[in-house]
Amino acid sequence: MFKCAICQDLMPPTETIETTICGHLFHSKCIKTWFQTNSKCPQCRRAYDSTRKFVKVLHHRIFMPDQITDKSDLQEKIFDLSSKTELMDKEKDELEKKLKMKTQQVTRILNKQNKMIKEFERKSKFGKSRIVQYQFQPFALIETITRPIKAPLTDRQIKRKKRVKEYFEKKKEQRKERVAEEAIL
């Protein structure tokens, strides 16, 4: 149902309702009384001359699709909507908490991986080797090492490469063990 902007009462389908040129709805009595002392629309303040105040008179049937006429029905509808709103607010809060937890978890994983990358970079500063690519996978870090193809590797470089490979295999096993322990807990 609509409300009259002048008296703030509901406009039931049985009352005569009038509309101004600007399209605002009012009780017939309210708008006629208004225009006896004013020449502007009570809602939008559009000026009217004395001859063109109303476009048409509407009778009956101005209502919303699922019209509710009883106050108790309205109160019940308000209660239902407020309880739905509360449930949605609780659900939103829970989802925000889950999002925050997941974000923190991802941040911790990324921090661990960044530490591992820095450690690897620090330990791999031999010869002219460089780190070309890091690929992110959950709970794992894949490093690809390339060397310029200028000269064959020396025995020292081969031993160092073997030690680095063993180091990362050991770290990989330790990570697997930690993940297995966390899964058990």
TrEMBL record:
It holds the Pfam family zf-RING_2. Keywords: Coiled coil, Metal-binding, Zinc, Zinc-finger. SUPFAM superfamilies: RING/U-box. GO terms for molecular function: ubiquitin protein ligase activity; zinc ion binding. GO terms for cellular component: nucleus; site of DNA damage. It comes from the Eukaryota. Residues 4-45 form the RING-type domain. One of its GO terms (biological process) is replication fork processing. PROSITE patterns: ZF_RING_2. Residues 85-112 form a coiled coil. PANTHER family: E3 UBIQUITIN-PROTEIN LIGASE RFWD3-RELATED, E3 UBIQUITIN-PROTEIN LIGASE TRAIP. This is RING-type domain-containing protein. It comes from Polypedilum vanderplanki (Sleeping chironomid midge).
